[in-house]
């Protein structure tokens, strides 16, 4: 069956009528078997036309073997749409003829013209794709919201910058506290993603899609840099991952979140391989301190979600207490209603020859809890002096360090291209920069010796310890592991090794 298709946008004196188009098309065949499809009053700018759509349905039902039109633009004025329709014709073995332009796909010349048309269609397609991609990356450079689903814990807020409408993010009051809890728990506890998900489900917290949490949902949240307060450490982390960073290092002052975008393997999960991805500072302020966010990344990178120690259910000090004589772990044993500590170096490995007196768990816990309270009070007093200034100064030092490393790398690359005189000057400059680098490293070391625990962590723990008896065993363990490295026990002394 032959199909004649005719289209006319509006009636004009100089516009060829539907009837005239049909007469021209009839001259292209002699058979009596044909079907006419007409669309009057429809534009050729798109393919949403009733009779045209009916013709395509008949083609798919294999009722049509050839389509004839008066001119190519009767099908569509868009090269892309025209190319798609021709591909459909080819798929169902339908020939195509333009009556006035002598465009006939059943002939070699007509087929060649079709191929030329398809090449231009592909060029237009790629040009459009490039424009879309360029626009997307241009938005990223400006820190605009990159589209897609709103991240968990956030809500979108419409804003306009230089006359351009975009969105920025701010905390979602209903989810923000859960978001903070996720990062806090995963960064400092021994919980695996699965156990963290189970804990959230048990407490009744809903995931982004309103159902139960699982490890995959948590990992996507923990990996997303949209939450982090991006500082020098974040710049270094993504630079080492092979990312292209849009912003200058001086802009990483620990305030704004980030957007990470780029092409990825369809079969790979997001954030699996971020080499050559682009990182841009966002317009919104971050929610998570960099040391907490990075702690989560290192834990995820190493696939170390659970430690072998600290699983004990009898004491919040499980995994922390060591024998002060042999340094082997002391584990909790029970006898009737009593819990006491036993040296594994003596009972399991036969390397400790000291038989200690009985150390009851409650005695050790009471002592450590009192010392922890004192330690928190001391840390709080020290941190309240100049926490913001110290943090800002430390970040500025790290930014200077990154800048010096870049200068040294550039100078080393120039050495191979220079003559003897230039090489001498470059070497002197490298020595000077190296000296500056060492000075900065000393300053950083001085700052970090007393600044490894944040003010927020200390305040949170101080609040928790005031409600100690109301905390669960896991919550007590979490606080202990945040501040205590080891507890050494001998017959005479209990020595606590604090985390710096």
Automatic annotation (TrEMBL):
What molecular functions are annotated in GO for this chain?
DNA binding; DNA strand exchange activity
Q: Where is the Recombinase domain?
A: 151-306
Coiled coil spans: 394-450
Coiled coil keyword on record:
yes
| All residue ranges annotated as the Resolvase/invertase-type recombinase catalytic domain in the record | 1-143
Does the keyword field hold Membrane? no
Name the domain of life this protein comes from. Answer: Bacteria
Q: Which UniProt keywords apply?
A: Coiled coil
Q: Which Pfam families match?
A: Recombinase, Resolvase, Zn_ribbon_recom
Which PANTHER family does the UniProt record give?
DNA RECOMBINASE-RELATED (PTHR30461:SF23), DNA-INVERTASE FROM LAMBDOID PROPHAGE (PTHR30461)
What's the name of the protein?
Recombinase
């Amino acid at each position: 069956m032959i199909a004649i298709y005719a289209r006319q946008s509006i009636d004009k004196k100089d516009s060829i009528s539907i009837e005239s188009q049909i007469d021209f098309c009839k001259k292209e065949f002699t058979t009596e078997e044909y079907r006419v499809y007409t669309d009057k009053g429809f534009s050729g700018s798109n393919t949403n036309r009733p009779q045209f759509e009916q013709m395509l349905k008949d083609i798919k039902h294999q009722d049509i073997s050839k389509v004839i039109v008066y001119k190519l633009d009767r099908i569509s004025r868009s090269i892309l749409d025209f190319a798609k329709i021709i591909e459909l014709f080819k798929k169902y073995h339908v020939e195509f003829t333009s009556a006035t332009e002598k465009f006939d796909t059943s002939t070699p010349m007509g087929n060649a013209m079709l191929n030329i048309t398809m090449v231009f269609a592909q060029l237009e397609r790629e040009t459009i794709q490039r424009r879309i991609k360029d626009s997307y990356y241009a938005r990223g450079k400006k820190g605009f919201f990159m589209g897609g689903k709103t991240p968990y814990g956030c809500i979108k807020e419409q804003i306009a910058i230089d006359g351009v409408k975009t969105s920025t993010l701010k905390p979602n009051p209903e989810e923000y506290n859960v978001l903070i809890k996720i990062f806090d728990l995963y960064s400092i506890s021994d919980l695996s993603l699965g156990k963290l998900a189970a804990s959230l489900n048990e407490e009744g917290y809903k995931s982004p899609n309103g159902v139960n949490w699982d490890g995959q949902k948590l990992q996507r949240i923990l990996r997303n840099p949209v939450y982090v307060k991006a500082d020098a450490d974040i710049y270094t982390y993504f630079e080492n991952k092979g990312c292209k960073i849009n912003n200058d290092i001086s802009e990483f002052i620990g305030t704004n979140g980030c957007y990470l975008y780029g092409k990825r393997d369809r079969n790979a999960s997001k954030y699996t391989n971020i080499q050559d991805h682009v990182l841009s500072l966002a317009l919104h302020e971050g929610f998570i301190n960099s040391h907490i966010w990075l702690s989560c990344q290192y834990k995820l990178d190493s696939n170390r979600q659970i430690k072998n120690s600290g699983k004990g259910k009898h004491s919040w000090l499980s995994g922390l207490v060591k024998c002060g004589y042999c340094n082997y772990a002391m584990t909790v044993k029970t006898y009737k209603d009593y819990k006491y500590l036993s040296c594994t170096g003596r009972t399991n490995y036969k390397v400790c020859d000291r038989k200690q007196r009985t150390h009851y768990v409650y005695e050790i816990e009471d002592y450590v809890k009192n010392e922890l309270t004192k330690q928190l009070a001391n840390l709080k007093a020290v941190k309240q002096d100049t926490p913001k200034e110290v943090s800002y100064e430390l970040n500025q030092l790290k930014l200077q360090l990154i800048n010096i490393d870049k200068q040294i790398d550039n100078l080393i690359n120039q050495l191979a291209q220079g003559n003897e005189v230039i090489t001498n000057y470059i070497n002197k400059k490298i020595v000077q920069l190296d000296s500056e680098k060492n000075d900065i490293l000393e300053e950083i070391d001085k700052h970090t010796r007393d600044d490894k625990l944040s003010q927020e962590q200390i305040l949170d723990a101080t609040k928790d310890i005031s409600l100690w008896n109301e905390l669960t065993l896991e919550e007590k363990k979490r606080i202990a592991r945040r501040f205590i490295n080891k507890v050494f026990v001998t017959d005479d002394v209990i020595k606590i090794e604090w985390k710096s």
